[in-house]
Amino acid sequence: MDPEFTREALRLAPYCPLLLYSMLATAAIHKSRFARDPTVEGECAAEAERYHEQCVSLLLPMLQDKDSITDGAFLACSTILRFYEEISAPVHGRDDARHLLGGYASVEATQKQSKSYVGLSNAAFWVHQRQDVYNALINQRVPRTDLSRAGLDRSMSPANECVWAKRATCLNADVVEFCFGVDSGSVSKYHAIMKNLDDWHLNVPDTFRPVYYRENDVASGRYFPDICLLLDCCTFGLSYYCFCMLLMTIYDPTTPKIGSRKRSCIICESFAALQSLTQSHQQESYHA
Q1: Does residue 163 share a domain with residue 123?
Q2: CA 74, 108, 122: angle at the middle one, nearest 5?
Q3: Contact 20, 74 (CB under 8 A)
Q4: What is the pLDDT of residues 75-84, one digit of tens each?
Q5: Which of 28, 36, 142, 242 could join 274 via S-S bond, C-beta 3.0 to 4.6 A?
Q6: What is the value of pTM for the model shown?
Q7: Which residues face 228 on adjacent strands?
Q8: Is 217 helix (H, G, I), strand (E, B) or coil?
Q9: Do 8 and 136 fall within a single domain?
Q10: Which helix (DSSP H) or strand (DSSP E) does residue 212 occupy?
Q11: Residues 10, 135: one domain?
């Protein structure tokens, strides 16, 4: 969603062993997971572990240095290694999310020092924020990253598509916190979040409207509608919005948990839209 992260991380990697080793470790474990040859799989897994250990040996001393821990390379490395953990979790049979802790430490140190997120650190922050929300969701807990101290643009004022997509990720964090936090049964909190979601959907640029839409046709084997947007960030932003609506419908404190036809219809519609956007993005990425 944020090409700045890819661009900056790749640009700095040849001069930053921390980034280089984290990328090599992730690339190797990814290749090992999809290798058909058992020999290649084993060799890549061993290489991945070696690069991972080298990266960790560089990371640990930086945790004690207030300047290093707030450096963009540290946070970027933590997010890349978090991806490494997610890929390797099926191999190890568990996901300890240890590298999320490095991201938390970096973000907390940056906020305590009142530093701004710029360049690579800004791009890495958004990756970390999404990883935090995802981990909170699958473990049914509230996100740990405090967005209120991050100096983010949470307004509904005019902005480019990437800003609107990032606003959607912030709303996603609000929704997950509501669903699994102490306010999960609060009707007033529910309505406040729903208003923010409605405002987001009403104020996004026209580029968030599909340029092509076709209803599903079960008889033809198309179980979900076709939804196409022009920009990746719009696809991501709208996907987050649909996912938010799905969760808010499931955790709606104003309707019965079962027996509500309207509730079931909204859940089905949100899921169908989310599935369609995901398929659309995968097809676009493949053809690219």
Answers
A1: no
A2: 55
A3: no
A4: 999 999 999 9
A5: 242
A6: 0.85
A7: 212
A8: strand
A9: yes
A10: strand 212-214
A11: yes
